[in-house]
Write a structure and sequence with these properties.
The chain has one domain: TolB, C-terminal domain (Neuraminidase, 6 Propeller). The protein has one helix and 24 strands. It has a four-stranded antiparallel sheet with strand order 1-24-23-22, with no helix packed on it. A four-stranded antiparallel sheet has the order 2-3-4-5, with no helix packed on it. It has a four-stranded antiparallel sheet with strand order 6-7-8-9, with no helix packed on it. The longest helix has 24 residues. It is globular. The termini are far apart.
Length: about 350
C-alpha cells in the first residue's frame, strides 16, 4: 500500500539532523548581513532639478507705507521690479538689489487688480472695483482710460470688474473682463473698440472668471480661465487654438521674452458646497513653466502660508499668490494677497559635486 511518502519513521531523526545545521548556517548568514550592510554607493552628487531659494535680503529698502494685498508684479526691460499693492501707496518700483526707486498712485484706485508693462514702456493697471483699465507713463501720469470709472456694464464702453490687460507690439490692447462679464475685449492702438468674445460657461472659448491675460512673440493670447482650471489660447481674432486643462487653478499667466509661459496658482480643485469661487482658499501654491504648446518644462510647489487676524505667513511661504514677475535670469518675484508682500526667489540651477 502506497502512503505517498518516502522513508520510514526511523529515517525522520536523520533528516532533521541533516536539515537543522543547514538552517543554522542560513540564519547565521542572514544575521551577518544584518550586522554588516553592503558597501555604500557613490551616487553622483548632482541635482538635475532646478529650484528656488528665498532671498531674505530683498527688498533691502521699504517704503514708509504699509503693504496691503500684493496684486500685481512686473519686471521691465531695465530690470526694475514694479509692484502693485492695495495700500496707501499702490505703485512701488524696486531695483534688482532691492532699493526703492519710485512710488506713486496714492488715491488713484479703488481696488487695483493687476499691472503689466507694454512694449513702449507704458504701465497698464486694471482696477476691478472701479471697472476701468488705466494707462500711465512710468512717472505716474495718466495717459488713457478704458471704461468709465465707477460705472459697470457689458458693452464696448463699460467693463464689469476687469482683471488684467496686455498691450501687443502693434499697440492693440486686450482686457480680461473678468469677475462678472467673462469675456475678452479688444481695442486697437487708438483705443477704439474692435470686438469681444467669450461668455460664461465651460466649453472651449467660454470662461468662468478669466483672471489674467498675456501674449507671446507670435501674438497668441493666453487667458487664465481660473474657475475652469485651465489656460486657454487664442489668436487675436478670438479664434480658439488650445486649452491646457487640469494642470492647476491658474491665477496669473505671464509670458517671457523667450516665450516661456509661467502660470501661478494652486493644484486643480473641485467645487465644494461652501465655495463661492473655485480654489478659494487654495490648498497649495504652485508656479509652472510651460512652452507655447502647453508642454510642462518645470514646476515648483511653495509652502502654503497661514493667514488671518492672529496669523502671519512665514517668509518663503505664499498665501494666495496673485502677482508674478520673472527677470532675465529666471528669478521669481511673487506677491500674495493674504501675505500682503512681495518676495524674491532666486533661481538655483542644477548643482554638481
Amino acid at each position: 500500500m502506497t502512503t505517498g511518502r518516502t522513508g520510514t519513521a526511523a529515517d525522520r531523526p536523520l533528516r532533521v539532523a541533516l536539515v537543522f545545521p543547514l538552517l543554522m548556517v542560513l540564519a547565521g548568514a542572514l544575521a551577518a548581513q544584518t550586522k554588516e550592510p553592503p558597501p555604500g554607493v557613490d551616487y553622483p552628487r548632482v541635482s538635475l532639478s532646478l529650484g528656488y531659494q528665498l532671498d531674505v535680503t530683498w527688498p533691502q529698502q521699504r517704503s514708509g507705507y504699509a503693504w496691503e494685498a500684493m496684486a500685481g508684479i512686473a519686471v521691465d526691460p531695465a530690470g526694475l521690479i514694479w509692484t502693485l499693492n492695495r495700500g496707501e501707496m499702490p505703485v512701488q518700483v524696486y531695483s534688482a538689489d532691492g532699493k526703492l526707486m519710485r512710488q506713486w498712485g496714492a488715491g488713484m484706485f479703488q481696488s487695483p487688480h493687476q499691472l503689466s508693462i507694454g512694449p513702449r514702456g507704458h504701465i497698464w493697471i486694471a482696477d476691478s472695483h472701479d471697472h476701468v483699465v488705466y494707462q500711465y507713463a512710468p512717472a505716474g501720469t495718466r495717459l488713457r482710460t478704458l471704461g468709465i470709472a465707477g460705472e459697470f456694464g457689458d458693452d464696448q464702453w463699460h467693463f464689469k470688474m476687469p482683471t488684467d490687460v496686455v498691450e501687443t507690439e502693434a499697440g492693440d490692447v486686450f482686457i480680461s473682463d473678468g469677475y462678472r462679464n467673462n469675456r475678452v475685449v479688444h481695442y486697437n492702438g487708438q483705443g477704439k473698440f474692435v470686438k469681444q468674445w467669450g461668455t460664461l460657461g465651460v466649453a472651449p472659448g467660454q470662461f468662468s472668471l478669466p483672471h489674467s491675460i498675456d501674449v507671446d512673440s507670435q501674438g497668441r493670447l493666453y487667458v487664465a480661465d481660473r474657475n475652469n482650471a485651465r489656460v486657454q489660447v487664442f489668436d487675436q481674432t478670438g479664434k480658439f487654438l488650445a486649452q491646457w486643462q487640469n494642470l492647476m487653478v491658474p491665477w496669473t499667466v505671464r509670458v517671457t521674452d523667450r516665450d516661456e509661459v509661467y502660470v501661478c496658482g494652486a493644484s486643480p480643485s473641485r467645487w465644494r458646497k461652501e465655495d463661492v469661487q473655485l480654489g478659494i482658499p487654495p490648498k497649495d501654491q504652485l508656479v509652472m513653466k510651460l512652452d507655447t504648446t502647453g508642454r510642462i518644462l518645470s514646476w515648483w510647489q511653495f509652502p502654503l502660508g497661514r493667514w488671518g487676524a492672529d496669523k502671519q505667513a512665514r517668509p518663503g511661504t505664499l498665501a494666495w499668490v496673485h502677482g508674478m514677475g520673472i527677470d532675465s535670469n529666471g528669478n521669481l518675484y511673487l506677491g500674495d494677497i493674504m501675505g500682503k508682500r512681495v518676495q524674491r526667489f532666486d533661481r538655483v540651477p542644477p548643482l554638481g559635486k
